[in-house]
């Protein structure tokens, strides 16, 4: 049974979606039951996967290989390493939570759950693919459900266009403005998302095809290509750029981010959760899986590109989030800002920083999942996301406001949440190589505090408009459970990050060793080569690293 | 040239599918005339029965590996011909199922309709076996003949008449080009059979001759710049005929194109590859860009069909064994998705009486099944995993990248994104827009059957393509001597014989 864990995680949502096709839309409880049941199976299996993954053994585990096409050299080759495992777990948690967050959807419930299950399953598929073809297959498969989820159950973002700042100037998405032409509806958001992602996905596909041709191995298998394919010169650069920018668009790196906040704002809560929580991580993950694994030398040469772009991501995203007045825009831009940290962690190509980046992906999935779930709740109750017109909701929804504060704290990287550990690792790990970026990243944390506190105050404190006096708190188990799950995960891994850390390190170590050709002194993170530099980490990071259990 | 005109029984065996269908055709016609009261549905099922028996016969050929040539190589029955014939028969069966509800709209000659459809199918079956210039001309005209009538079958409808006229004039013009090209080629080489022509010196007359033949075949497949008849003809023709026209003649013409370019002209590959690359880039780009502006779903599919042909031409430009496999496989995926989409169009047109995209608003609320089916078919045409069209496109791209056709692939990939836009416009109408009229849409049994077959084909090929790939690979073994890395791949055992 254990060797089929990956298949169970991957196919449980598909089976659930398939079963839902044959259920009538009128049997609401059955529809919800099937969706929740299949998500639960997937969740349990991914929790099992996370704890059964053996970090001492490392490498790819739970491997499944099913021949799919001999002519093309494709097999359904599944397996997880220390990087994929936490992301699979995060997908499982967010899918399960997302099912409950969207419990109150009224319109076409069955279709909603079908598409959300397919979306999550496709995302999970990417995290466990060891075959370039299937990596792309699942990646592209996750795009179309997004279109339908945004279009059918989303909400218009028209108001955003009319929003002005104190001086009466229009606040618009700068890059998106070129494409906006005044039409800022959910249809526009959905179409923009699909076209953006598909356009860059085909660039990645071109890179994959070039890898296939020039490896001369007639295979799409990442493990074979990793060992036997060698690329150098301009060809390697071209492939790397295609792969990097192809996948970085979903991450979303500046300046390819403009589809993302628009998409977040238009999407229903559960979709935003999956979108920000795991879909965006497909970008980083695919870059790690394809570019880092197959083109290690080129990665070493070209990764500074990411180090440059991440500055813009962090600062630009943070500033727009500060000035945005729509809750989902704030969280959306905050997500794209925070994804800059992941790029920073990846760019430094250091054991600590890359581990930090992977843990950050996991941590961010929990934190931003919470925030989007609660923004969705507030929107459902008040039918607005306009921060200035809201306020004082903590009287009406004490649970939500308390959870929101915790979500914001997690997002900021408060000690005690897993985000803190990730942030500290990124900052410590990349200090040697990119001190300027680290300064920017720390400023970015200040910025994060600024806009999240501003939003928190705007939503829950101050005086409440009379028309919102009928809004309700989350009281039932169904409504509270998803938030409680994410809060619990975020805090418990913040206090006991040991297993998470060792799992991630077991995935990161061979990768970085391959790229930098420096073998880690792996006994304790403080003994790593970079730590012998004169820079002394702050006392806070000492504490954080002291919590880390030795491998 | 000497023809051996003596036919033995074993020779006739090769012709069995065609002979049987010819006989069955006469039966259909006689039954139609003899029993005045015969319900046209029974006639349809009678035709389908004949087609299914022919299909079974071909399957038997494929399994037992019966192949050979007839009439001094004029007629060839090889695995590739069988593959194409199966596709044509499958398309014809589905088209007849589509027609059953539509034929009521014809005020007369309902019986002859099925006769003409099956006759065109017969012509196209011969076309896939054509192995020299004479049989090419005769079978091509035979196949087109029925279509001239079918396109203008709605006698009282101006659009249908216009479609028929346009199709006829341009078709006859193409026939003239073809005849002239054939005469030039014969004059230069003195040969008629494709396989005898290899190694002919590339004289001016020969080049012009082949260009003219390519133009005539380009007209059949609707590649730019020979596409001008497509939108109006597709729009005006009765919808089942449009569905038939959108797949079967293309399939048959590709059989001839493969034999012509990869057998007769194999030595001139660098020269004609450029021609194909140009036609492919133009077809994909033109078809996809113009499709964006369409408001009528039949016209949309017409332009999308032009673009799809551009995609198939990528495989021809590769000119390898693998390129041939990819063409066969792609056409198979296109068959299911395209005929399925036409089935949905007909179901909606029966209920709403219109083919405008605006009338698809809120289809998801009116008939979730139809909307879902249309979604699957359109996404398969766009090439979205896990549907058949994605595998088809990927296979073509892999075949092309092995030959280093980078520009062509780049254009093809960009076009996927462009095509995504207009397919999603229809999806948007169906799923996101609110219905103008919320009455549910009912579908009849035969249409449902076609939609189910289309869905099954699109999903099964998309999720587990291996048997179909094997079948395509086995069908093109005759091209294994072509240069290209595909030849080095071990040949698998095909599920349909070996």
UniProtKB/TrEMBL annotation, chain A:
Tell me a GO cellular component.
membrane
Q: Which UniProt keywords apply?
A: Membrane, Oxidoreductase, Transmembrane, Transmembrane helix
Topology within the bilayer: Multi-pass membrane protein
Residue ranges, annotated region (Disordered): 530-551
- This protein's major location comes to membrane
Transmembrane feature ranges: 6-23, 30-51, 83-105, 112-139, 193-212, 233-254, 274-292, 304-324, 359-379, 399-422, 434-453, 483-504
Polar residues: which segments have biased composition?
A: 530-541
- Residue ranges of domain NADH:quinone oxidoreductase/Mrp antiporter transmembrane in the record: 181-448
Q: Where in the cell is it found?
A: Endomembrane system; Membrane
Query: Which EC number(s) does the record attach to this protein?
Result: 1.6.99.5
Which GO molecular function terms does the record list? Answer: NADH dehydrogenase (ubiquinone) activity; NADH dehydrogenase activity; ubiquinone binding
Q: Name one GO biological process term.
A: electron transport coupled proton transport
Q: Which InterPro entries match?
A: NADH_Q_OxRdtase_chainM/4, NADH_UbQ_OxRdtase, ND/Mrp_TM
Q: Which family does it belong to?
A: Belongs to the complex I subunit 4 family.
Name of this chain's protein: NADH-quinone oxidoreductase, membrane subunit M
Q: Which organism is it from?
A: Nitrospira defluvii
UniProtKB/TrEMBL annotation, chain B:
Name the species this protein comes from.
Nitrospira defluvii
Quaternary arrangement and interactors, per the entry? NDH-1 is composed of 14 different subunits. Subunits NuoA, H, J, K, L, M, N constitute the membrane sector of the complex.
Question: What family does the entry list?
Answer: Belongs to the complex I subunit 2 family.
List the signal peptide residues: none
A GO BP term here is: ATP synthesis coupled electron transport
Q: Is Coiled coil found in the keyword set?
A: no
Name of the protein this chain belongs to: NADH-quinone oxidoreductase subunit N
Under the heading HAMAP family, the entry gives: NDH1_NuoN_1
Query: What are the top taxonomic ranks of the organism?
Result: Bacteria, Pseudomonadati, Nitrospirota, Nitrospiria, Nitrospirales
PANTHER family, alphabetized: NADH DEHYDROGENASE
A GO cellular component entry from the record: endomembrane system
Query: Residue ranges of the NADH:quinone oxidoreductase/Mrp antiporter transmembrane domain?
Result: 130-418
């Amino acid at each position: 049974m254990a060797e089929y864990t990956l298949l169970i995680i991957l196919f449980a949502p598909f089976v659930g979606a398939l079963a839902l096709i044959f259920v009538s839309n009128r049997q609401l409880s059955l529809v919800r039951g099937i969706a929740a049941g299949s998500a639960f199976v997937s969740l349990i299996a991914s929790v099992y996967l996370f704890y059964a993954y053996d970090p001492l053994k490392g490498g790819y585990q739970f491997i499944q290989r099913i021949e799919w096409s001999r002519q093309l050299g494709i097999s359904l080759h599944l397996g997880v390493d220390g990087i994929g495992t936490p992301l699979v777990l995060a997908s499982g948690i967010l899918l399960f939570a997302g099912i409950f967050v969207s419990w109150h959807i009224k319109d076409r419930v069955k279709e909603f759950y079908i598409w959300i299950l397919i979306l999550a399953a496709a995302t999970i598929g990417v995290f466990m693919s060891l075959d370039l073809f299937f990596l792309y297959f699942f990646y592209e498969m996750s795009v179309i459900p997004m279109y339908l989820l945004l279009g059918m159950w989303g909400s218009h973002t028209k108001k955003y266009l009319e929003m002005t700042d104190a001086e009466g100037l229009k606040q618009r998405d700068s890059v998106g403005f070129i494409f906006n032409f005044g039409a800022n509806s959910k249809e526009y958001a959905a179409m923009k998302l699909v076209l953006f992602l598909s356009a860059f996905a085909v660039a990645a596909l071109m890179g994959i095809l070039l890898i296939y041709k020039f490896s001369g191995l007639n295979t799409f298998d990442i493990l074979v290509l990793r060992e036997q394919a060698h690329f150098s010169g301009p060809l390697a650069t071209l492939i790397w750029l295609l792969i990097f920018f192809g996948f970085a668009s979903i991450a979303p790196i500046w300046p390819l981010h403009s589809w993302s906040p628009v998409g977040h704002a238009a999407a229903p809560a559960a979709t935003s959760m999956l979108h920000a929580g795991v879909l965006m991580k497909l970008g980083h993950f695919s870059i790690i899986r394809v570019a880092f694994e197959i083109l290690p030398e080129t990665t070493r040469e070209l990764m500074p590109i990411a180090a440059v772009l991440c500055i813009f991501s962090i600062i630009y995203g943070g500033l727009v989030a500060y000035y945005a007045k729509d809750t989902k825009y704030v969280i959306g831009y905050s997500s794209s800002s925070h994804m800059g940290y992941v790029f920073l962690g990846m760019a430094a190509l250091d054991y600590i920083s890359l581990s930090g980046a992977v843990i950050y992906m996991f941590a961010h999935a929990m934190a931003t999942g919470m925030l989007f779930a609660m923004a969705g709740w507030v929107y459902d109750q008040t039918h607005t996301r306009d921060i200035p017109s809201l306020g004082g909701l903590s009287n009406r929804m004490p649970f939500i406001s308390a959870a929101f504060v915790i979500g914001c704290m997690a997002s900021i990287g408060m000690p005690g949440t897993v985000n803190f550990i990730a942030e500290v690792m990124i900052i410590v790990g990349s200090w040697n190589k990119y001190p300027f970026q680290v300064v920017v990243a720390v400023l970015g944390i200040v910025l994060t505090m600024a806009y999240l506190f501003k939003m928190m105050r705007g939503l829950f404190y101050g005086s409440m408009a009379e028309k919102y006096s009928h809004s309700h708190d989350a009281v039932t188990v169904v409504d509270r459970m998803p938030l409680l799950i994410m809060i619990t995960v975020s805090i418990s891994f913040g206090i006991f990050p040991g297993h998470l850390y060792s799992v991630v390190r077991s995935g990161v170590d061979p990768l970085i060793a391959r790229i930098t050709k420096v073998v880690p002194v792996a006994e304790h993170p403080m003994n790593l080569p970079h730590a012998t530099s004169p820079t002394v980490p702050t006392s806070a990071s000492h504490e954080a690293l002291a919590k880390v259990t030795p491998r | 040239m000497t023809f051996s005109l003596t036919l033995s029984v074993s020779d006739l065996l090769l012709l069995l599918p065609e002979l049987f269908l010819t006989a069955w055709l006469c039966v259909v016609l006689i039954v139609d005339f003899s029993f005045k009261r015969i319900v046209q549905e029974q006639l349809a099922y009678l035709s389908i029965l004949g087609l299914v028996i022919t299909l079974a016969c071909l399957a038997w050929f494929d399994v037992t590996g019966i192949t050979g040539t007839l009439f001094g190589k004029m007629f060839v029955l090889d695995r590739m011909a069988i593959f194409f014939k199966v596709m044509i028969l499958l398309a014809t069966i589905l088209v007849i199922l589509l027609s059953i509800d539509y034929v009521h709209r014809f005020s007369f000659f309902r019986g002859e309709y099925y006769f003409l459809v099956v006759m065109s199918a017969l012509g196209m079956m011969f076309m896939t076996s054509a192995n020299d210039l004479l049989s090419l001309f005769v079978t091509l005209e035979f196949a087109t003949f029925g279509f001239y009538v079918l396109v203008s079958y709605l006698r009282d409808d101006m659009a249908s008449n216009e479609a028929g006229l346009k199709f006829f004039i341009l078709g006859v013009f193409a026939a003239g080009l073809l005849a002239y090209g054939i005469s030039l080629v014969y004059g230069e080489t003195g040969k008629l059979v494709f396989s005898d022509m290899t190694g002919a010196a590339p004289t001016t007359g020969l080049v012009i001759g082949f260009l003219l033949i390519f133009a005539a075949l380009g007209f059949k497949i609707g590649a730019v710049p020979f596409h001008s008849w497509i939108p109006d003809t597709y729009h005006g023709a009765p919808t089942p005929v449009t569905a038939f026209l959108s797949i079967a003649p293309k399939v048959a013409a590709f059989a001839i194109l493969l034999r012509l370019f990869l057998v007769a002209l194999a030595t001139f590959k660098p020269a004609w590859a450029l021609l194909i690359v140009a036609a492919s880039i133009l077809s994909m780009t033109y078809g996809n860009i113009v499709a964006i502006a369409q408001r009528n779903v039949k016209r949309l599919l017409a332009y999308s069909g032009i673009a799809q042909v551009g995609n198939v031409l990528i495989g021809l430009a590769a000119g390898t064994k693998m390129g041939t496999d990819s063409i066969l496989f792609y056409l198979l995926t296109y068959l299911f998705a395209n005929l399925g989409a036409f089935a949905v169009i007909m179901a909606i047109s029966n209920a709403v009486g219109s083919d405008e995209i605006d009338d698809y608003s809120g289809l998801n609320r009116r008939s979730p099944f139809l909307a879902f089916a249309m979604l699957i078919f359109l996404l398969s045409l766009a090439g979205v995993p896990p549907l058949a069209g994605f595998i088809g496109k990927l296979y073509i791209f892999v075949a092309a990248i092995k030959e280093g056709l980078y520009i062509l692939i780049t254009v093809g990939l960009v076009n996927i994104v462009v095509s995504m836009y207009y397919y999603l416009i229809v999806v948007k109408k169906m799923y996101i827009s609110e219905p103008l009229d919320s009455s549910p849409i009912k579908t009849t049994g035969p249409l449902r059957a076609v939609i189910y077959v289309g869905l099954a084909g699109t999903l099964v090929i998309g999720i587990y393509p291996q048997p179909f790939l094997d079948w395509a690979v086995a069908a093109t073994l005759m091209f294994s001597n072509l240069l290209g890395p595909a030849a080095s791949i071990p040949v698998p055992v095909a599920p349909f014989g070996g």
